[in-house]
Amino acid sequence: MDSMLDAAIWFWIPLMLIPLGMWFSVSGKAKKTGFVFSISGLILVMASSWTVPSSDSSAAGHLLLWISGPAILMCYGMYGAVFGGNVPVGKLDSSARLTGFAAVLFSLLIFCLMHWSNLTPTWRDGQVNPYWIVFWPTFLLFSTSLSSLSAIALLSYGDERGLEAVKLSAFSVFMAGIAIAGIIFDGEKISAEEFQDYLWLAAADIFGSLIGAGVALGVFATVIWGYERSLPPPKNTHPPTGEEIDYVVNLAKKHIVGEDE
Amino acid sequence: MLAALLPVLVIISINVSFGDDLHDESFKRFGNAILTSYVLVGLILIGNLFFYADSRHRPFAPLIGMLCAIFIGLIVAWLLISKEDLLLEANSGLRAQMLMNIVHGLVTSSAMILASALAIGFTFAMITGRKRRLLFLDDEE
Questions:
Q1: How many structural domains is chain A composed of?
Q2: How far away is chain A from the Cα of B66, in angstroms, using its nearest Cα?
Q3: B44 lies within 8 A of chain A by CB
Q4: Which of A52, A190, B95, B137 is most buried as measured by Cβ atoms within 10 A of its Cβ?
Q5: Residues 77-96 of B with CB under 8 A from A
Q6: Does some domain include residue A261?
Q7: B29 — contact with chain A (CB < 8 Å)?
Q8: How many Cβ pairs closer than 8 A exist between chain A and B?
Q9: Between the CA of residue A134 and those of A59, A128, B118, B119, what are the distances in Å?
């Protein structure tokens, strides 16, 4: 089969199935079908390094598969850390908080080992997956930036949240520390010089992606605003008749229960 | 805004202090990232527009408007990537660059989503970590 057709069938079509399934699922039209679409699309994308090894794009699928373990562990840990605390609904056992934080730290340790030890995602003849060095600095820079933003937001909008803001700032410094360690120390398969180069590219990626997404949202808002403005104003309806009011009052009486204080 | 930018600037400054100059491909990456995320986010918004338009009798005009906006984005991308050495990175041609941009966008967005989950999760973990405070005196009883 033609390699382009192969890539289309085993990578690009499954990739398109992921958002399509999400739209179906979220819109409530075909929840189960949408879920099946998304999951099967994701699995096929992740398996693309076996189904279409000739395609360079399959490196992205391979990376997603490689990081899925620590990513799931991180999300699971976060869930435990949040819901093991004082939440009004869905509170977990208080030990979930400790184990949650331990899971997050362990997942971060796995990511660090992927950079510095021989756990680095390798693809095609033992070479480092080219997208790993895109993912890792982007993840570090963005989490550092967002944690710092959260700390300031907590301090500005929260009530007596100084201690929490300090902890968040410390976390931001911790993530920045990992990035700085990448600048200084060579990994087993990735040198510090390579990481330094890709840090620039990660910063360019983050700023570019945010600006592009912002422009798209702006255009979307303008299009919707333009359309809504072009619509004729809604016509006033007649006030309800006495019969209609009686019907609504009866309906309300049937559904209102409870005692007077 | 400064809170978000400052850590990135500090890390980049440390990077520069280690003797690493601005990477040659940084501008190309920046330009490609803008165009790719514009087109991809635009497509996601079109999807939302289509699937959530039932309550408004599925109007056609905004769909056409967004399709035109994305088409303009694609034309700009095509022109800039075709223009000799402006946005073309280490790829064989226009098609390879555009496909690479999409895959690159997938990886970058995965990294950003995971980083957001970590940062937002950590923020809520900090918020829920504090003991409940008394809001009203009645709570003491």
A1: 2
A2: 7
A3: yes
A4: A52
A5: none
A6: no
A7: yes
A8: 256
A9: 12, 11, 18, 19
